[in-house]
Amino acid sequence: xxxxxxxxxxxxxxxxxxxxxxxxxxxxxxxxxxxxxxxxxxxxxxxxxxxxxxxxxxxxxxxxxxxxxxxxxxxxxxxxxxxxxxxxxxxxxxxxxxxxxxxxxxxxxxxxxxxxxxxxxxxxxxxxxxxxxxxxxxxxxxxxxxxxxxxxxxxxxxxxxxxxxxxxxxxxxxxxxxxxxxxxxxxxxxxxxxxxxx
Amino acid sequence: xxxxxxxxxxxxxxxxxxxxxxxxxxxxxxxxxxxxxxxxxxxxxxxxxxxxxxxxxxxxxxxxxxxxxxxxxxxxxxxxxxxxxxxxxxxxxxxxxxxxxxxxxxxxxxxxxxxxxxxxxxxxxxxxxxxxxxxxxxxxxxxxxxxxxxxxxxxxxxxxxxxxxxxxxxxxxxxxxxxxxxxxxxxxxxxxxxxxxxxxxxxxxxxxxxxxxxxxxxxxxxxxxxxxxxxxxxxxxxxxxxxxxxxxxxxxxxxxxxxxxxxxxxxxxxxxxxxxxxxxxxxxxxxxxxxxxxxxxxxxxxxxxxxxxxxxxxxxxxxxxxxxxxxxxxxxxxxxx
Lengths: 198, 337
Known about the structure:
The complex is a heterodimer of chains A (198) and B (337). Chain A is of the alpha/beta class. Chain A has helices at residues 25-35, 86-93, 110-125, 151-158, 176-196, and strands spanning 3-5, 10-18, 40-41, 45-48, 54-67, 70-78, 98-104, 136-141, 165-167. Chain A has five helices and nine strands, in the order E-E-H-E-E-E-E-H-E-H-E-H-E-H. In chain A, strands 1, 2, 3, 4, 5, 6, 7, 8 and 9 form a nine-stranded mixed sheet that branches. In chain A, strand 4 and strand 5 (54-67) form a beta hairpin. In chain A, helix 2 (86-93) packs across helix 3. The two termini of chain A are 15 Å apart. Chain B has eleven helices and four strands. Chain B has helices spanning 5-38, 47-54, 63-83, 86-115, 119-127, 131-146, 150-154, 171-174, 232-238, 272-275, 287-290; strands at residues 227-231, 251-255, 266-270, 294-298. In chain B, helix 1 runs parallel beside helix 4 and helix 4 (86-115) packs across helix 5. The longest helix of chain B has 34 residues, at 5-38. Mean pLDDT of chain B is 64; it is low at 1-11, 162-179, 197-209 and 214-224. The interface between A and B is large, with 60 and 48 residues.
C-alpha cells in the first residue's frame, strides 16, 4: 500500500519483481540502475551470494513522476527466486503496490515459472490480496536464448487474466524500461483512482 | 562489536528475575509444608514431638535422618539426570521431598477419615511402620519429577546457558563460498549466469498414469487434438521399460488425445498399434501383453509447436485495474533507452 508523506510531499510506492530463480529479476534492476538517467535514482542495495543468487532482496529507489505537487517515488524490490526462501519472498511482498512477474522463456523452466506464479498467488493470499486485484504485468525474459517457448504458449500458461506482457532481454535492456513504465502507469492509475474514490 | 549498555542492563534484570523465580519456588514450598505441619492435630503434644513422630527411631537413632537423606539424594539424582545442572537438581531434591511429604499426608488423611483414627498417628505410621505407603509415596514423587515437572527441569528454570561454539569452528570459513564453483555470465548463455537445470523425472515405469476423473475419452477419430511427430527416444525416456520394443532413432506419429490445461506436461493417450507401425523391433511374440494403450506424459516442447495454436486459446477477463481510465501524469513515463 502506497504511503503518503504530506510534510515532504512524497508518495512512496513499492514494486516487486517476482519470478523463479535465475530468471533475471536482479538483472532488470541492475540495468535500470546503470542506465536510468535524467531522473533521480538512489543507490541499489543488493544482498546476494557470490554465485549471484539473491539472498534476501535487491532494492532500488527511483523518482519518476509528480502528481498534484507530490513526488512519486518507486521502491523497486526483487525477491530470492529459490524455493528455499519463501519466507523472505512473502516478507518482501508485504504492502506491495505492483508486481512484475519475470518469467524465464526457456522450455525447461516452464514448471518453475508455474510454481513461482502459484507461489506468488499463495503468498499474496496470506495478506488477503488477490493477484488480480493488484496491478501486475508479466515479463517474458531471455527471449534471446535458443530453445525458448513461443509467447502465445507462455501467455496460455502464465497469463490467466490477460494482463500486459512484455518480451525482454534483460542484460541488453530490451523490454526492461517498457516493463517498468507499463507497471508504473498502472500503479499510478490505480493510486489516483483509489484516492479519488475516497 | 561491543554490546550497547542497555542490553547488558536488560540481561542483568533478567537474571534477577530468574533468581527470584527459583527463590519463590523454594520459599513457597517451605511455607506450604510448614503450614500443613501446623495443621496436624497434635493431640496435646508439642510441635517438635509431632515432628519426632514423623521420624520414628526404630533401629538406630540416625536411621530416619539417613532415610530422608537417601530420599533427597534420589530426587537430586533424578533431577540431575534431567537437568544436568546443580541448581535445578538441588531444587528437584527439595521439591521431591515436599511432594513426597504431601503424598504421605494425603494417604494419612484418607486413612484417618476411613478408620476414624488420629491424623498424626496415621501419619507417623505411614512414615514409619507402613513401609509400603512410604515406598508408594516415593514412587509418586519420582513420577512427579519425571512427568509434570520434566520440562521445567529440562529447561533448567531457564538458567541453562547456550552451548558456546566449539573452538574448532571457523565461522568465516563456515559461511565462505567456493569461488571456483561460481557460475559467471558468458556470451554462450546470452549474458545470463549459467546454471545446471535439474531435469524433472518423467513418468517412471512403476507409476502408471491414470486419467483424471472428469476426463472424457475422445472418440477415436483422427486429429482429436492434432497429430504430432515425437522422436521415439522421448517416449523411451518416459517409459524406459519399452526400450526393447522401440527403435529410438525413429520418429513416431502419435495422436495427442488430451492436454491438461495450465500444466507444463501434456498427457497423451498412446494407442500403440496406431502409433508405431513398422517402427517396432522384433519382439518375439511379446507384443500382445505389452502393447497396451497407456497414458504418457510429454514435455510441452515436444508437441506444442505441432498442434494448432487455437488449442491454447483461453478466454480471459481483464482485472478491474486494467479497465481504469488513464491519468495525465502517466505521460511523464516516456523515457526509453
